[in-house]
Amino acid sequence: MRTTHRLCNGDARALPLHDASVHLVVTSPPYPMIAMWDDGFSAADPEIGAALGRGEGAAVFEAMHRQLDEAWAECARVLVPGGWAAINIGDATRSLGGSFGLWPNHARVLAGAMRVGLCPMPDILWRKPTNAPNKFMGSGMLPGGAYVTYEHEYVLLFRKPGVRVYDADRRRESAYFWEERNAWFSDLWAGLPGQRQSSSAGRSRSAAFPCELPWRLIQMYSCLGDTVLDPFAGTGTTAAAALASARSSVSVEADAAVLGDAPRALTDAVAWGPIRTAERLAAHAAFVGARVAAGRVPKHLNSAYGPVVTRQERDLRFWQAVAVSQGEGVWVGEHVVAVTP
Questions:
Q1: Which of 60, 61, 182, 249 is the most exposed place for a label (fewest CB within 10 A)?
Q2: Is 101:94 a contact under the CB 8 Å cutoff?
Q3: CA 334 – CA 40 distance, rounded (Å)
Q4: Where are the domains of the chain?
Q5: For 155-159, 190-194, 265-269, which range has the lowest pLDDT when averaged over its residues?
Q6: Contacts of 339 (CB under 8 A, 6+ apart)
């Protein structure tokens, strides 16, 4: 199997894609009201910088989100009917205009995405605790003077109205194990710490999402060979997760220098993907062993990976990348079916 991976320097508000051409969106946009993104939002709308200088928090918050609204409208346009979008967003706390408060980015993204026709689905809380000694805000032990410390972000999930037409064989092959379903389809994801993301362009984020997060969403909401879009691609984490999952991808990033690190992420995914597959197969073998020891022998058989709990798992196959090379305007991944160790 081959997959293609396009790396596009461009604006998320004008995606270089045809209507109904992608199956899944996985992204983490710039967070409004987080100081490191002020310059980017202000470059697109100089009035934002002026309003920041005047301390007009509500006006800044709304103006920043209007830019994101345009990106969500584009995502809705390019998704196939029945396609999914997963948006990782965190709320912000900030002092502005002489007062400190919370800016509920997740609520505003929900409203903006609904306004352009995306249907909200049950979301996920991504718990990412920090052990920083200064994480508590306020006066500490005096009543009424301290603030709850936020140690979570949201993975907001949406589906485009309509019915997706699946290739039945490919969908069955894209299944996941029963025990994976039970772990992944929970509204609380813990044990996925944010990772430091640095680019050769000098941009650094202390808690960007790890490859595991988009990788898991890709297993849950797309099929082998599907196309995954990240309209705020950064250094290419979603593209790497797509390659490791035998999906194609389109990555759009306004900062060309930052996007220049994406090829390295694709190359790294060729090594990471088989490791992750081996972990899945080992975990499944351990699960089956414990289930058999408890007298609960699985009733179904997957010819490649052994006993499974449900009929839907019998045809699943894990494809993994063995190489990636630069083609004409795209990167091309080569994939083979994983076998048991």
A1: 182
A2: yes
A3: 36
A4: 2-272
A5: 190-194
A6: 304
